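Hey,
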Amino acid sequence: AVDGICTATFSLDDSLKEGAQELIESLKEKGITPILLTGDNITTANFVAKQLKIEKVFAQVLPDEKYKVIKDLQKEAKVMFVGDGVNDSPSIKQADIGITLNSGSDITKDAGDIILVNNDLKSVLKSINLSHESMKIIKQNLFWAFIYNAVGIPIAAGILYPIMGVMLTPVYAGIAMSFSSVTVVLNSLRLKFKTI
């Protein structure tokens, strides 16, 4: 103001990161409850939460309090925390899965389990989908390895010899074992061709 007359005004706004709304909608569709945990004041936090349709908000939370909130939430469920500030580092480290953006500080990146190199929030969803697909394939591999060994080892030991006269020689047993390993590897390689 000059001589009591307003000569300039400034307006600041917290804009949403690109892809934030789509991410929140997708998380909800997967049955994941998004929570806004921020150091911002309650008015700003509620404004952002309303835009993103996030129902649970923790605002004006100091860094050490964020850590405690996450510990409390972990008593109820697994917690994934996405952050990019230095003050988010303890929370990222404490969460079951800590995700940080590449634009964050080195300290924050060191704390994270996953770094979104492209800073694209859609990658959070891709990470979740990839982990689900990986677990499916791991379970399939364990199942087939168990079945293969449950059948193959007794045959190699000669269980069918007295009944049918069938016995695996060491060469065929080695080939069969190699085939088992190749099957597991090929099944795992399917991940490479999945659209996530």
